[in-house]
Amino acid sequence: MPRSQRNDNFIDKTFTVLADIVLKVLPASKEEKEAFSYYRDGMSAQTEGEYAEALENYYEALRLEEDPYDRSYILYNIGLIYASNGEYIKALEYYHQALELNQKLPQALNNIAVIYHYQGVKASKQSNFETAKVMFDKAAEYWKQAIQLAPNNYIEAQNWLKTTGRLNN
């Protein structure tokens, strides 16, 4: 049974019903509708922490989806899963692929910055200050781009950029 037919809470059921209606009336090809269905099931599995199932659905959606904008969100969500699992190199790869298709994805830029910042903190704790500086500078670069796209978001990042003197560099 598809995940979309197994949702137990009211909001998930409501979303599923609305999504099914949209799918029926949307002038889309069979492949596009099928891709959306896999994407929706992937989001549902991801929300429930079922990352392996979510990845299966996202990869299938990616195989079927042709629209670059829609593909960018699938790639972004795959990146989220890898980041959640601590696979930062893979996460960065998927975030960058998403950005290649959709440069206006501030959340991907933010997540890249978060990964670099985390690596900077780790390097700093190991007294590897040269690597830490490189990682922090990369984080700043990506946060500036994210903030440029979404100026009212990422307040903590904006504060970090100000306090570290990286805002105007």
List keywords for this structure.
169 residues, mainly alpha, elongated
Structural notes for this entry:
33% of the residues are buried. α4 packs antiparallel against α5. It contains eight helices and no strands. It is elongated, with a radius of gyration of 18 Å. It has helices at residues 10-25, 30-47, 51-64, 68-84, 88-101, 106-125, 129-149, 155-163. By secondary structure, it is mainly α.
Summarize the structure.
This protein is mainly α. 76% of the residues lie in helices and 0% in strands. The mean pLDDT is 89.
Instruction: Return residue spans where pLDDT drops below 50 for at least 5 consecutive residues.
Output: none
Helix content: over 70%
Please give the alpha-carbon distance between the first and last residues.
Answer: 53 Å
Strand content: under 5%
Overall residue-averaged pLDDT value: 89
Number of helices: 8
Largest sheet: none
The class by helix and strand makeup works out as mainly alpha
Tell me, briefly, the overall form. elongated
Series of H and E elements:
HHHHHHHH
The number of strands is: 0
Radius of gyration: 18 Å
Itemize the secondary structure elements and their pairings.
Layout: H1 10-25, H2 30-47, H3 51-64, H4 68-84, H5 88-101, H6 106-125, H7 129-149, H8 155-163
